[in-house]
Amino acid sequence: MKNLNVVQLNGLRAVEAVGRLGSLQAAAEELGVTIGAVSQQVIKAETQLGRSIFERTPRGLRPSRAGEPFLRKLNAGFRELSEAVGSVRHRDDTILVISVAPIFASRWLIHRIHQFSARHPEISLRIESTTTLADLAGSDVDLGIRIGPGNWPGVRAEFVLPQEMFPVCTPELAQKLRTPADLVDMPAVIDANDQFTWDRWLKAANLDQPPPKTRHMFSDASLCLDAALAGQGVLLAWPILASWALEEGRLVAPFDIRVKTGMGYYFVTAPDVREPKKVTLFKAWMRQAIAESMADHTDGSPTPLP
């Protein structure tokens, strides 16, 4: 215990974050500091502890044999500390704090939250747009909305909507598309970070042909949608990303083929915590709003394939 007493809390936080997230970069993003600062904190903590918690490999840091049990206990300790802080923090029943991915916030939620406010004027929303899964037990975040496999540790995940991919384009470009085979002659807008490729969609369409030719590639799905709206090509989109543009008629889905990616949207909440009424009300409203937004562009929109 003597060594633990002299280890600074910031150093332990850095060690815990690196161990939990698996990289210096991810830990730096969560802690809001530079990668170099995290690295220095880890080195300093290891020096104070008198042993290495991580092994340095070509692929980055990984827990050492001595580090693995230490990191498990450290993670549990920080979680208990966060829960203790959260248990005494005053929560305002009139303010609902939601942590949500930027794409969901900007392309779906922002267009519809006035509907929730009209139905529940007594509740104000505070939207935290981030790609990081919030610490639901130890922060003032009431509800997270996330896309993924739904198996995140330490949270309760409730399935909302599957992610399904389908082509969208402007009505002008759609006039050139009579069958899916016509896509071979069309320019495509590509999301550089999307793991779902045109090959999978073409296979579902029973087509053995090259994908559309890449015209532009972006590292952000929101920019991809803007490019599609500008008529720069056909985009493989999903309902949450494109629903507002489809409802307004600025984009169309020319073919009735939709392919599931294996991912989904989930409500994420702290485990073993009684759900506040404001969260229940928002979840009920959002389920209804999603159902309505999907129904608004049923005609001419994709229908799911198994």
Spatial strand order of the main sheet: 4-3-5-10-6-9-7-8
Annotation field: number of helices: 12
SSE order = HHHHEEHEHHEEEHEHEHEHEH
Main β-sheet description:
8 strands, mixed
What distinguishing features does this structure have?
306 residues, alpha/beta, 40% helix, globular, disordered C terminus, LysR_HTH_N, LysR_subst-bd, LysR family transcriptional regulator, transcription regulation
Structure description:
Residues 7-64 form the HTH lysR-type domain. Pfam families: HTH_1 (PF00126), LysR_substrate (PF03466). Belongs to the LysR transcriptional regulatory family. It comes from Mycoplana rhizolycopersici. This is LysR family transcriptional regulator. This protein is an alpha/beta fold and 306 residues long. It is globular. Helix 9 links the parallel strand 7 and strand 8. It is built from 12 helices and 10 strands. The strands form 2 sheets. It has an 8-stranded mixed β-sheet with strand order 4-3-5-10-6-9-7-8, with helices on both faces. A two-stranded antiparallel sheet has the order 1-2. Helices cover 40% and strands 21% of the residues. The protein has helices spanning 2-5, 9-21, 24-31, 35-49, 67-88, 102-107, 113-119, 171-174, 198-204, 221-229, 239-247, 277-295; strands at 54-57, 60-63, 95-100, 124-129, 143-148, 156-168, 187-191, 213-218, 234-237, 259-269.
Outline the fold blueprint:
Layout lengths: L1 H4 L3 H13 L2 H8 L3 H15 L4 E4 L2 E4 L3 H22 L6 E6 L1 H6 L5 H7 L4 E6 L13 E6 L7 E13 L2 H4 L12 E5 L6 H7 L8 E6 L2 H9 L4 E4 L1 H9 L11 E11 L7 H19 L11
Parallel strand pairs: 3-4, 3-5, 7-8, 7-9
Antiparallel strand pairs: 1-2, 5-10, 6-9, 6-10
